[in-house]
Amino acid sequence: MGRAITYCVQCSKRVSDADLSSGKAFRVGDRILCDGCTPDAIKIKSSTKVTRPRDAITTVLKKP
């Protein structure tokens, strides 16, 4: 099977799956944008996982 060929929706630059996984291109909904066309607010280059603090307490309220 072949691979899908994708292009940036704004500048029509070819984008590969490797670009998407390495952070050189971004998927925004069903649209794909290259690094140059992606707004800074969308770019998330951090690969660190955000975890919940261990001392956080979860409260569950039951209906009477």
Compact overview of the structure:
The chain contains 1 helix and 4 strands.
Characterization of this structure:
The protein is mainly β. Helix content is 9%, strand content 19%. The strands form 2 sheets. It has a two-stranded antiparallel sheet with strand order 1-2. A two-stranded antiparallel sheet has the order 3-4. Strand 3 (25-28) and strand 4 form a beta hairpin. The chain is elongated. The mean pLDDT is 78.
Which helices and strands, and how do they pair?
Blueprint: E1 6-7, E2 14-15, H1 17-22, E3 25-28, E4 31-34
Rg, nearest Å: 19 Å
Question: If strands are numbered along the chain, what order do they take across the biggest sheet?
Answer: 1-2
Apparent shape:
elongated
* Number of strand elements: 4
N-C termini distance: 57 Å
How would you characterize the largest beta sheet? 2 strands, antiparallel
- Helix amount, in percent? under 10%
Secondary-structure element sequence?
Answer: EEHEE
- How many DSSP helices? 1
Mean pLDDT, to the nearest integer, reads 78
Q: SS-based structural class?
A: mainly beta
Name the descriptors.
two-stranded antiparallel ribbon, two-stranded antiparallel sheet, 9% helix, elongated
